[in-house]
Design goal:
This protein is α/β, with parallel strands linked by helices. It is built from 14 helices and 22 strands. The strands form five sheets. Strands 5-6-8-9-10-13-15-21 form an eight-stranded parallel barrel, surrounded by four helices. Strands 14-17-16-20-19-18 form a six-stranded antiparallel sheet. It has a two-stranded antiparallel sheet with strand order 1-2. The radius of gyration is 22 Å and the shape is globular.
């Protein structure tokens, strides 16, 4: 795999000619939406195919997969555009890529119940677990259903993907309800009610397991959280359900850097099958202008985590959104609006803004001035960003990756994951 960074004067045609890969395949594999106006600094993933096949009349996904002794899921991962099931005689598809994959990983993708069906179907071949963000615990111990997850559970199962129920106290605005969280942690009877209600939903809906969000974990509440997770896991395991927890590490802002608090997560590791280190950033964030989970900080976190937790329990969370901050930044007051990686690239291309790259954070960024004369900085992820984070899974021998979110299909991210690892299916 090669990651090409667009230079001044380059076009999609010149890049195609240099790598001897057809233009339409470069566009398709990378999800390029601005092929006629590439941004300087934009990345394009180059993966040479090992085996190609020209579709014949009467071919099906199953017949082609059987002919080449691969699974239909692998065929769909190598050709995501076939997710609609349509094959056209004469079209060329990729049977295998030139890769040196040796490690199998698990992948988890978070989704809301209102995800577009076409996006979900395109993504499912790449997933081991589908985590459905659909349930909110209350201070009374009830669990509120946010949307209809019936079809999502059914689709996931049909693709060999294990549906996971996600329970948190996160509000519709994406904020942790600290008051509710404290009530739950300090009231064993409320905990028991939440566990009973969750178990009923797990059985009724046909979930494979449960993902419990450990909100605002600190030195002061780790013992209470550990006791709660232990109690919940004993109940869910007795009924045959998988238990995973998601942790958002407490971030500490220093004078010149971003760090994290070293909480004793080992207290939680004996009760679960997976621990996801992730960051939930929604449509708006008030965090410091920077890459979300910079690689240098993430590496420090993993070095600490694997020293106290078995590495094979850990999932590395990867966010798929970028953010646009106004400058100067005022802590607690300056908010940043979410922007997709695709839209960030298009904005840079349309306005002739060169994309820059921060090596330490392994993230892309650029500055611009709006019509009111206000300076902005945009941080987002490109192929280099994903490759660096995906590479940490092998480096630290982690269980896998957890993607927040899969509401949009990020072709480059999945291409990188697919060509670096085998993906476990349940």
């Amino acid at each position: 795999m090669t990651i090409h960074v667009v230079q001044p004067g380059e076009t999609i045609d010149s890049i195609s000619e240099f790598y001897k890969i057809p233009v339409d395949r470069l566009i398709l594999e990378n999800g390029i939406t601005n092929p006629d106006n590439l941004a300087i600094g934009q990345t394009i993933v180059i993966v040479q195919p090992e085996t190609l096949y020209t579709v014949q009349e009467g071919d099906t996904l199953d017949s082609i997969a059987e002919q080449y002794r691969i699974t239909p899921m692998e065929l769909l991962r190598n050709n995501p555009h076939l997710s609609d099931g349509a094959l056209y005689p004469g079209e060329t598809i990729v049977i295998t890529y030139q890769t040196d994959r040796t490690k199998t990983i698990a992948t988890s993708g978070y989704t809301f119940s209102y995800i577009e069906k076409s996006v979900l179907i395109k993504t499912l071949p790449f997933l081991t677990y589908l985590t459905i963000f659909n349930y909110r615990a209350t201070r009374e111990g009830d669990i509120i259903t946010i949307g209809d997850d019936t079809e999502l559970i059914s689709l996931a199962s049909s693709y060999g993907v294990a549906p996971m129920m996600f329970v948190s106290t996160i509000t519709e605005e994406g904020m942790v309800n600290l008051e509710t969280n404290n009530v739950i942690l300090n009231n064993p009877l409320i905990q028991d009610r939440i566990i009973r209600n969750a178990l009923e939903i797990l059985k009724e809906k046909g979930y494979y397991g449960i993902n419990l969000y450990v909100e605002e974990i600190t030195y002061d509440n780790i013992n209470k959280i550990s006791a709660y997770i232990k109690k919940a896991s004993e109940v869910f395991h007795l009924e045959g359900f998988r238990v995973v927890i998601t942790i958002t590490p407490a971030v500490a802002l220093g004078a010149s850097n971003i760090g994290f608090e070293r909480v004793d997560y080992s207290q939680l590791s004996g009760y679960v099958e997976g621990i996801i280190f992730a960051s939930y950033e929604w449509a708006r964030t008030f965090s410091y202008p920077s890459s979300l989970f910079p690689v240098n900080v993430t590496r420090d976190l993993l070095n600490y985590a694997v020293s106290i937790i078995p590495s094979e329990l850990i999932f590395l969370g990867v966010t798929t959104l970028g953010y646009d901050w106004t400058l100067p930044y005022i802590p607690g007051a300056t908010g940043a609006d979410a922007i997709s990686n695709e839209n960030a690239i298009r904005f840079a291309a349309d306005n002739g803004i060169p994309i820059q790259f921060n090596d330490a954070a392994q993230s892309s960024y650029f500055y611009y001035t709006d019509s009111d004369g206000t300076m902005h900085i945009v941080w987002f992820k490109d192929a280099r960003s994903y490759a660096a984070r995906v590479g940490l899974v092998a480096e630290f021998n982690l269980q896998g990756l957890s993607i927040w979110t899969i509401m949009r299909f990020d072709a480059q991210m999945w291409l990188i994951i697919n060509t670096q690892y085998y993906i476990e299916k349940r």
